[in-house]
Write a structure and sequence with these properties.
With 346 residues, the protein is an alpha/beta fold. It folds into two domains: 134 residues, 3-Layer(aba) Sandwich (Aspartate Aminotransferase, domain 2); 167 residues, Aspartate Aminotransferase, domain 1, CATH 3.90.1150.10. Helix content is 31%, strand content 8%. The protein has eight helices and seven strands, in the order H-E-H-E-E-E-H-E-H-H-E-E-H-H-H. Helix 3 packs across helix 6. The chain is globular.
Length: 346
């Protein structure tokens, strides 16, 4: 990447950067050390208490710290990347500043640097003074025809920030943290929470570990994700950053009623898993393995599954009044990923 060699640093058992490993590698590559890229809060959903020590270590060996701002919605109004040791940070506009996240959402966001790096920021051959701190010998050049990004995208985030103002943005951060910890506390007696920080708390997201479920009865993270569709939910992030887990990241957008509805669904699914584990339900023919249940199944002359239509389609009472009907039933993910299908009109 840009002519650099990438060196991977280990994590400890709590999901934090392994301090001894990064110290050893910083010393080993001291004369070549260019930069460290680190996410804060970590993708494991915790605030790493050694973050400033890690930054000091990299600086001591002549390197710079690039902070991945993917989780900036856990920092707005309560911290500053430059204050805690970062030299460079990109700030994702999705999730934190109102741009849609994931499929359909444009990837956009500013990159902020400390003053000693500003002379090297991009300039523009047509638009003057894009970089007022440009070095006398020139900058890294032009990286985009539109020097300040897309007006159609950035205006959304500008309006969000202008309406929220400082107090509103800080409150959004606090609610995002509260929501994640509320879900963590509600689900911890039903699913193991993989990583926690100090005082048994998480940051903006919590990761529930489903590996033991897979081992005990063959129910996978895919099965649970598809069953959530029957309960009216799009699944949280699957198998990232750890395989066979769900990373739940509610942000500040959901109210308590919706959080409770999600938690109730996850708890109900855990009871369905227990029925498979105990043998009360067949391990290969059960509501999780057959999920999601599409409405075309109701048109069949006979219902041949070993559980009721109520369990299949209306597993919780509140679904009765506002049911989401998936357009398709169970598909083979792996086959679909490996085989290309043309949907063109011929």
């Amino acid at each position: 990447m840009t002519g650099l060699d990438i060196i991977t640093v280990k994590c400890d058992d709590n999901g934090n950067v392994d301090i001894e490993d990064i110290r050893s590698k910083a010393e080993q590559y001291s004369e070549r050390l260019s930069a460290l890229m680190i996410t804060y809060p970590s993708t494991h959903g915790v605030y790493e208490e050694a973050f400033r020590d890690i930054c000091d270590l990299i600086h001591a060996h002549g390197g710079q710290v690039y902070m991945d701002g993917a989780n900036f919605n856990a920092l707005v109004g309560v911290s500053r990347p430059g204050l805690i040791g970062a030299d460079v940070s990109h700030l994702n506009l999705h999730k934190t500043f109102a741009i849609p996240h994931g499929g359909g959402g444009p990837g956009a966001g500013p990159i902020g640097v400390k003053s000693h790096l500003s002379p090297f920021l991009p300039d523009h051959p047509v638009v003057k003074d894009v970089n007022p701190d440009a070095h006398k010998d020139g900058t890294i050049g032009t990286i985009a025809a539109a020097p300040w990004g897309s007006a159609s995208i950035l205006s959304i985030s500008w309006a969000y920030i202008a309406m929220m103002r400082d107090k509103g943005l800080k409150r959004a951060t606090m609610i995002a943290l509260l929501n994640a910890n509320y879900i963590c506390q509600r689900l911890k007696d039903h699913y193991p929470v993989l990583y926690k920080g100090k005082n048994d708390m998480v940051a903006h997201e919590c990761i529930i570990d489903l590996r033991d479920v897979k081992e005990s009865c063959g129910i996978t993270v895919d099965d649970i994700a598809k069953r959530l569709v029957d309960y009216g939910f799009h699944a949280p992030t699957m198998s990232f950053p750890v395989a066979d887990t769900l990373m739940i990241e509610p942000t500040e957008s959901e109210n308590k009623r919706e959080l409770d509805r999600f938690c109730d669904a996850m708890i109900a699914i855990r009871k369905e898993i227990e029925a498979v584990e105990s043998g009360a339900m067949d391990k290969d023919n059960n509501p999780l393995k057959n999920a999601p249940h599409a409405q075309y199944l109701l048109l069949k002359e006979t219902w041949d599954l070993p559980y009721s239509t109520e369990i299949a389609f209306f597993p919780m009472k509140d679904i009765n009044e506002d049911k989401y009907w998936p357009p398709v039933g169970r598909i083979d993910n792996f086959y679909g990923d490996k085989n290309l299908f043309c949907s063109c009109i011929t």
